[in-house]
Specification:
The complex is a heterodimer of chains A (about 180) and B (about 400). By secondary structure, chain A is mainly α. Chain A has helices spanning about 1-60, 65-80, 85-105, 110-115, 115-150, 155-160, 175. Chain B folds into two domains: about 1-360, no CATH class; about 370-405. Chain B has 13 helices and eight strands. In chain B, helix 10 (about 295-305) packs across helix 11 (about 310-320). The chains are: A mainly alpha (about 180), B alpha+beta (about 400).
Chain lengths: ~180, ~400
């Protein structure tokens, strides 16, 4: 009888232990999903801002058709992308097209003084930032989740219920990262 | 990642508990002094009740009290300062806050900022107009990141509790000291009644008075120590969020380069701000008694970060810049996140003093419900609230064009 009770207690404890690990895995996976949806919201916001931007600058930049077309094309490509790596690639192309556009803007002082354009530029800059901060937060969450899946004892529960590692949202442009930092 | 802040919390909670015990001992000792040997329970419970009442008030109304004594006005209209709203949202995303913090503006020329709110679900950041007028985008981001860090590190709650402890200790000691000198006669009578314990009484009086004088001082030092540590940690978290130490560094420099005092700040609220708002009022404070680490040191640490922007990098920079041992709690240092420093977002342009002043003036007028109309001749008409209630029209003082005044004021 005593042996049975002890056994029962052990079983109950193990069960509670496993359930809590399972729950924390689910919680982490939801956090990853939530972080991803944050990125999605901001990417969508960027896609929405671009037509406004083109509309505002069109009158000023008649000779920069190619630059503007590049942005429009990159935008439609990014909107069609499906998987995470595909999205990452398309979005960094779009970001590249936009930053090229900013370089060209330097030649148009009138445009730079346009209040509408300045307001749009602030929105776009902020959206860019929000994307990279959301990516930062997403990668943090993915790291926690993947660590949990790999580490003992949660790896057992993860294996039993088929939790899969999530992939990081990496930037394609490795050259950009290699720029040496200058300290002041 | 933010879970690891917990380990730091433990240390701080320990400090707060120490202060709490301190408070109880003082209460007990004073109680014993007044009511004899059974008095220590009365004294301790008196101290405890004061503490509980103050805690409840500050837990439920602390943030609104703080915001109203600082004369901060809530801003819900993004058009007042789109950039500020954007930056707060950026930091909300970076810190994975569940909701957007409320935004308050203090209409004062001295640049400063603080955060409040007992948990990430109910938080607010307040900045002065002077701050908004002086800082560029990256700098403002650094400041907001520092404030949001106070929220995610739960510093606001901790500092409030510690502040209340300090307040209670000062309060009780004060009561004791005052009554000591006012009703000195009555306590003497008590002494003469119990001659047998005369010497014991004398020792008790001396100890109690010494404690009443020393306790507030010690409690203050402890409080300042917690406050300084929290500032370093918030700097580290801010860089971890923005990945751009230079933004915060140059913001701190700009803020400290003005010698304007914040009129709405007091000694009590001073530790809440990003830099000490009382530069002129406060005497030259030594390291031990200041609520904030010296700005030059904070800037030096931030500028020594060149390899990365995570906590480990801050710790290394701290050791290099100050020669001191450690500032980041070991639990936080364990996190293994690679954080590369990003490029400057906006060009660091320093506004000339004239346009800085104009920015400030415009912003303060916006806060006071002024209306702006840009005339075609290039003049910006600034219309005070209530103008044109009879005839919604204004004539440009430069070119004579007539403009319609659209009254859109809600409050």
């Amino acid at each position: 009888m005593t042996a049975f009770i002890i056994l029962l207690v052990i079983v109950v404890f193990v069960a509670i232990f496993f359930v809590s690990i399972y729950n924390s895995l689910v919680r982490l996976r939801n956090q990853v999903k939530n972080a991803w949806s944050q990125i999605d919201v901001q990417l969508k916001r960027r896609h929405d801002l671009i037509p406004n931007l083109i509309e505002t600058v069109k009158g000023y930049m008649k000779h920069e058709r190619e630059t503007l077309e590049n942005i429009t094309n990159a935008r439609s490509k990014a909107m069609g992308a499906g998987t995470v790596p595909e999205k990452a690639k398309a979005e960094s192309e779009l970001a590249g097209a936009i930053s090229k556009f900013y370089v060209v803007v330097e030649n148009y002082p009138d445009l730079k003084a346009n209040q509408n354009f300045l307001a749009l530029q602030e929105e776009l800059t902020s959206t860019e930032n929000k994307i990279s901060f959301a990516r930062q937060a997403y990668n943090d969450q993915v790291l926690f989740f993947n660590n949990k899946i790999e580490m003992f004892p949660s790896n057992i529960v993860a294996g039993m219920f088929n939790f899969k590692q999530e992939s990081f949202f990496e930037l394609e442009d490795k050259a950009e990262r290699a720029v040496p930092k200058v300290s002041f | 990642m933010w879970e690891q802040i917990q380990s730091n919390k433990k240390k701080s909670i320990f400090l707060v508990i120490t202060m709490g015990i301190f408070l109880l001992i003082i209460g007990a000792l004073f109680g014993e002094y007044y009511f004899g040997y059974d008095g220590f329970m009365i004294g301790a419970s008196f101290a405890f009740i004061i503490f509980i009442i103050l805690s409840l008030i500050s837990y439920f109304a602390g943030d609104s009290i703080l915001l109203s004594v600082s004369k901060a006005k809530e801003v819900t209209d993004k058009s007042v300062h789109p950039q500020l709203f954007n930056i707060v949202e950026e930091m909300k995303i970076a810190a994975s806050l569940p909701v957007m913090p409320k935004i308050y503006i203090i209409n004062e020329a001295a640049p400063n900022a603080f955060a409040t709110g007992r948990n990430p679900n109910k938080s607010a950041v307040a900045v002065t107009s002077g701050l908004l007028a002086r800082l560029n985008r990256d700098e403002l981001q650094g400041v907001i990141a520092h404030e949001i860090s106070h929220i995610i590190n739960r510093d606001v709650l901790l500092m409030t509790i510690a502040g209340i402890m300090l307040g209670s200790i000062v309060f009780i000691s004060e009561i004791f000291l005052r009554s000591q000198f006012r009703i000195g006669g009555s306590s003497k009578r008590y002494n003469s009644n119990s001659k047998s314990s005369g010497q014991g009484q004398l020792i008790l009086i001396v100890v109690a008075i010494a404690l009443a004088i020393l306790a507030p001082i010690l409690a203050r030092l402890l409080y300042f120590a917690i406050s300084r540590k929290r500032e370093y940690l918030a700097d580290a978290s801010a860089v971890r969020l923005t990945r751009y130490p230079e933004g915060l560094a140059s913001a701190l420099e700009k803020i400290s380069s003005t010698d304007l005092d914040l009129q709405s700040a007091s000694k009590v609220t001073a530790p809440m701000y990003i830099v000490n708002p009382l530069k002129k009022k406060g005497m030259k404070l030594s390291n031990l008694t200041s609520t904030h680490p010296p700005i030059s040191e904070r800037v030096k640490i931030l500028r020594s970060m060149m390899y990365g922007a995570n906590y480990k990098d801050y710790e290394a920079a701290f050791q290099k810049a100050t020669g001191k041992k450690s500032v980041i709690p070991p639990g936080v240092l364990k996190e293994n996140v690679k954080a590369e420093i990003r490029e400057a977002g906006a060009p660091i342009l320093n506004l000339d003093p004239k346009s800085e002043k104009r920015n400030l003036g415009d912003l303060m007028m916006t806060m006071n419900n002024f209306l702006f109309i840009a005339c075609a001749c290039g003049l910006k008409l600034k219309i005070p609230p209530g103008f044109g209630t009879n005839k919604p029209e204004i004539t440009c003082t430069k070119c004579g064009r007539k403009h319609e005044i659209k009254v859109t004021q809600s409050d």
